[in-house]
Specification:
There is one protein chain. Helix content is 66%, strand content 0%. The chain is an all-alpha fold. It has one domain: Amino acid/polyamine transporter I (Up-down Bundle), CATH 1.20.1740.10. It holds the Pfam family AA_permease_2. Keywords: Cell membrane, Membrane, Transmembrane, Transmembrane helix. Its main location: membrane.
Length: 473
């Protein structure tokens, strides 16, 4: 597989091919961004963050928000400069022009979708167990997670039509659950219940003092901030992306960051950090403690709905990415087969589902799966921040957002720093990410050999099929 020189070959579709319908105004775009960020991360990992840092559980979310915000500025420059639906793969290919690097970035995004969906499946099972008093064992939660993922695969195979209206409804449900937590916390504080002083207390007895536990918790909290990068794939469907994207994306990050801080403060005020860190349903504990008369099954249902949709969207994204890479001759052609009746990529769906089954069975725990998602995305974000600087030498003939040069520099440094073992990141996350990417590299070389033996030359990458979106939180 030869490297492809950077050129102008990556252009919009020919004039004869219809373009995407520009239907999204600023308010619908804002709801899309907020809905993408909200989800599994805050519902499932708040307790694990508290377990590492103590009462200042809000602090890692603030730091994760800052890192995401700096990287968002890089995405803003790139999406207004190249307003096409391909995301990180497009920016990587334009910056470096090498098929293999583009493939690795796209495959890492695909893997992050699978790890995110696996996190959601585990959270779904845990919330079902707690909310409905079923008291599943760890093995039972794993089995429910596998069954849930099988249902997701079946829905994926049948075909799912998504719309902006459906996303709006989902966002309202997810937001409702978090607002319930905030209101319960505020009510309890106003009634003199709970312990507000906890919000400034660090965990005692840590080996790394204050700084390193916070950094370690930030690598986990970052999972709650992913999703904003997925909005760049809606660029071709926005009415005026150059004008609307900067304000709307920053507003969406600001809204979700504020919600996360308020949820964290409410949670730690009502539940001690050592208790909040037990199990995989931290926010259910908050509802039980702050509003014991509130029907816990209602909140459990909201949580299950939120994480279930995250899993479905992520598996849809992952299977379509595998399908797209197969069609571009960078993965084996069998993965690009489409079912004759359903018109869905059934082999790609099966492949990504098997990977998810393996993660749920052999990794299992929510922190490891969520942390792996954050690790993969931080690597992608590092490349995107560097791509901004490289692409400064590629002028375009229209006005676009230009971020201060210092921000992509800081973004690359911050994201690269948070991927390192010095952060206290569990080694299992590197192992899982390495195995997943290793599978991709192996498939890449198998495809190279198959292509060469068949005399097939890979066409120029069609990044609208290869780019895909990031994981939905």
């Amino acid at each position: 597989m030869t490297d492809v020189p950077l050129s102008d070959r990556i252009e919009p579709a020919p004039a004869a091919e219809p373009s995407l319908h520009r239907v999204m105004g600023p308010w619908l775009l804002l709801l899309f961004i907020v809905g993408d960020i909200l989800g599994t991360g805050i519902y499932a990992l708040t307790g694990q963050v508290a377990k590492q840092v103590g009462g200042v559980v809000w602090l890692p979310f603030v730091i994760a928000f800052i890192v995401a915000l700096v990287t968002a500025f890089s995405y803003l420059e790139l999406v207004t400069k190249y307003p096409k639906a391909a995301g990180a793969a497009l920016y990587t290919h334009k910056a470096f022009g090498i098929h293999f690097i583009t493939f690795i970035v796209a495959f890492a995004v695909m893997c992050s979708g699978i790890t995110s969906a696996s996190t959601a499946s585990r959270a779904f099972a845990a919330n079902m167990s707690s909310a409905f008093g079923l008291n599943f064992s760890s093995a039972g939660i794993t089995l429910i997670g596998l069954a849930f993922m099988a249902v997701v695969a079946a829905v994926n195979f049948r075909g799912v039509g998504e719309s902006v209206k459906a996303n709006v409804a989902l966002t309202c449900v997810e937001l409702t659950g978090l607002l319930i937590i905030i209101f319960i916390g505020l009510w309890a504080i106003g009634a003199g219940e709970g312990d507000v002083s906890r919000v400034m207390q660090f965990r005692e007895g840590g080996d790394g003092g204050i700084v390193w536990p916070v950094i370690a918790a930030t690598t986990l909290a970052f999972f709650a901030m992913v999703g904003f990068e997925d909005s760049v794939n809606m660029a071709e469907e926005c009415k005026d992306p150059t004008r609307h994207f900067p304000k709307v994306l920053l507003a969406g990050l600001g809204i979700t960051g504020t919600i996360y801080v308020l949820v964290s403060i409410s949670a730690i005020t009502l539940v001690a950090p050592e208790q909040l860190g037990e199990g995989e349903t931290p926010l259910l504990q908050v509802v039980q403690k702050g509003a014991p008369n509130f029907p816990i099954w209602i909140f459990g249902f909201i949580t299950m709905f939120a994480v279930a949709n995250s899993a479905l969207i992520n598996m849809l994204m992952a299977s379509r990415l595998v399908y797209g890479m197969s069609r571009e001759h960078v993965l084996p052609p069998a993965l690009g087969r489409v079912h004759k009746k359903r018109r869905t990529p059934y082999v790609a769906i099966g492949f990504t589902t098997l990977l998810a089954f393996a993660l749920i069975t052999f990794v299992g725990e929510v922190p490891a799966l969520g942390g792996t998602t954050a690790l993969l995305l931080l690597c992608v974000f590092t490349v995107v921040n560097v791509a901004v600087l490289v692409l400064r030498r590629d002028p375009v003939d229209h006005r676009h957002f230009r971020t201060p040069t210092i921000l992509p520099v800081l973004g690359a440094i911050f994201c690269a720093f948070l991927t390192g073992p010095w952060t206290g990141r569990d080694f299992v996350q590197y192992r899982v990410a390495g195995v997943l990417l290793g599978v991709g590299v192996l498939l890449w070389f198998v495809t190279v050999l198959v292509n060469r033996s068949a005399g097939v030359k890979p066409a120029d990458l069609d990044l609208r099929t290869l780019g895909g979106g990031g994981p939905v939180n």
